[in-house]
């Protein structure tokens, strides 16, 4: 049964001493886009801007469990590149995925590093052009990268690329027709299948897009969530939950609201929830003990920062907290323990401009 709930929230704004915060950068722009973590700290990827060519370089920051920087390294090319997403393997390796600006159009760059940050290999991908990677997941035998590309027909389409553990392309798929499509999140399921979510434009209307693929890249099903008269929908996060999936993103008419849906294994909606417009977007969802926690952006007239949302496996919102962090734009978060998270993004200051920033929160 499909059910829509509008969740009116009395937002609790938390002003507290966080366990730790950290920043990196100078007078230029530094941003963090993605993060993974554990009990020994975090590993975050983003970019650092320079005044000379190349103007932007992929950067990785490693911290200890107290948020102190252990090391920073760049993995760039002679041209501009921007680190977008990161994932850990069971062996302690990390795969970084970047967008690289080339004369023929942007390509994907994947870089495998070991636990000390030493580069193992680096390769480029994409049979088309203007690639934008947004998410990566580790599989039993490699990685799947989700994003967007421009095809030979000049259409922006959702893109999924699978590579093996040595960096060789296994398969590449595009999704969409003559509109604008993008895959913004991808997750591996317990049975080895792949679930991707994003958006699809059809006749001047944006729908939330879902696709289930097997490990060989064959489509099991595709679904569009939304209708021709409803709000624009966009998928930003997806995770497996009992008897289906939790999908998060944005519902927008005149302004955005965080959107949450429980989807069954056939791609049908079980329940939908819209959060208050103080939470404009649901950016990511992670498992935490028996429930799930979502990262939301948080903006009011007077406050800004991020929100953490506790969600059941059925898609019900249990609790939430808004964390006030001035001039902070959250991009991603990682779980570092039960009820403990680190949020990364960029923070603006009058003195240093936009800096890479990370902050821990108990929830």
Folded structure, characterized:
The chain is mainly beta. The chain has a domain at 235-324. The chain is built from no helices and 30 strands. It has strands at 3-6, 13-14, 21-24, 30-38, 41-49, 56-63, 69-74, 81-88, 94-100, 107-113, 119-125, 129-138, 142-150, 156-164, 169-175, 181-188, 194-202, 205-213, 219-225, 232-241, 244-252, 256-263, 269-274, 282-288, 291-299, 304-311, 317-324, 328-337, 340-349, 353-362. The protein has a 5-stranded mixed beta sheet, with no helix packed on it. A hairpin with a 2-residue loop joins strand 4 and strand 5 (41-49). The protein starts with a strand and ends with a strand. 47% of the residues are buried. Mean pLDDT is 91; it is low at 1-17.
Q: How many DSSP-defined strands?
A: 30
Number of helices: 0
Q: Low-confidence spans: pLDDT under 50, at least 5 residues?
A: 1-17
Classify the secondary structure makeup into a structural class.
mainly beta
Largest sheet: 5 strands, mixed
Percentage of residues in DSSP E strands: over 45%
> What's the helix-strand series?
EEEEEEEEEEEEEEEEEEEEEEEEEEEEEE
Which value, in Å, is the CA radius of gyration? 19 Å
Average per-residue pLDDT, rounded, comes to 91
Q: Which strand order spans the largest sheet, edge to edge or round the barrel?
A: 1-23-22-21-20
C-alpha end-to-end distance: 31 Å
**Morphology:** globular
Helix content: under 10%
Please specify the SSE layout and strand pairing.
Layout: E1 3-6, E2 13-14, E3 21-24, E4 30-38, E5 41-49, E6 56-63, E7 69-74, E8 81-88, E9 94-100, E10 107-113, E11 119-125, E12 129-138, E13 142-150, E14 156-164, E15 169-175, E16 181-188, E17 194-202, E18 205-213, E19 219-225, E20 232-241, E21 244-252, E22 256-263, E23 269-274, E24 282-288, E25 291-299, E26 304-311, E27 317-324, E28 328-337, E29 340-349, E30 353-362
Parallel strand pairs: 1-23, 2-27
Antiparallel strand pairs: 3-30, 4-5, 5-6, 6-7, 8-9, 9-10, 10-11, 12-13, 13-14, 14-15, 16-17, 17-18, 18-19, 20-21, 21-22, 22-23, 24-25, 25-26, 26-27, 28-29, 29-30
């Amino acid at each position: 049964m499909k059910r829509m709930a509008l969740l009116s929230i009395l937002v609790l704004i938390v002003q507290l001493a966080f366990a730790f915060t950290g920043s990196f950068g100078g007078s230029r722009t530094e941003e963090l886009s993605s993060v993974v973590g554990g009990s020994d700290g975090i590993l975050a990827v983003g970019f650092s801007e320079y005044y000379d060519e190349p103007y932007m370089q992929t950067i990785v920051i490693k911290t200890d469990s107290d948020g102190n920087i252990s090391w920073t390294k760049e993995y760039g090319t002679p041209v501009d590149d921007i680190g977008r997403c990161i994932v850990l393997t069971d062996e302690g390796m990390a795969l970084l995925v970047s967008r690289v600006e080339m004369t023929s159009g942007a390509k994907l760059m994947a870089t495998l590093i070991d636990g000390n940050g030493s580069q193992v290999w680096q390769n480029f991908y994409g049979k088309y052009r203007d690639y934008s990677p947004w998410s990566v997941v580790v599989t039993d035998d490699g990685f799947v990268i989700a994003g967007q590309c421009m095809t030979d027909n000049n259409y922006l389409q959702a893109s999924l690329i699978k590579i093996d553990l040595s960096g060789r392309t296994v398969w590449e798929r595009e999704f969409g027709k003559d509109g604008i499509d993008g895959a913004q999140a991808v997750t591996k399921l317990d049975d080895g299948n792949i679930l991707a979510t994003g958006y699809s434009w059809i006749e001047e209307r944006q729908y939330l897009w879902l696709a289930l693929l097997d490990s060989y890249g064959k489509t099991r099903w595709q679904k569009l969530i939304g209708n021709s008269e409803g709000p624009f929908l966009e998928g930003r996060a997806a995770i497996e939950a009992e008897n289906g999936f939790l999908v998060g993103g944005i519902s927008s008419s005149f302004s955005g609201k965080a959107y949450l849906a429980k989807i069954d294994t056939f791609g049908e909606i079980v329940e939908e929830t819209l959060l208050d417009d103080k939470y404009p977007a649901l950016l990511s969802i992670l498992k935490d003990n028996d429930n799930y926690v979502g990262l939301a952006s948080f903006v009011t007239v007077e406050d800004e920062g991020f929100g953490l949302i506790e969600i059941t496996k059925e898609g019900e919102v249990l609790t939430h907290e808004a964390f006030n962090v001035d001039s902070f734009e959250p991009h991603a978060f990682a779980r570092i323990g039960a009820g403990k998270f680190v949020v990364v993004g960029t923070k603006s200051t009058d003195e240093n401009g936009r800096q890479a920033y990370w902050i821990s929160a108990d929830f």
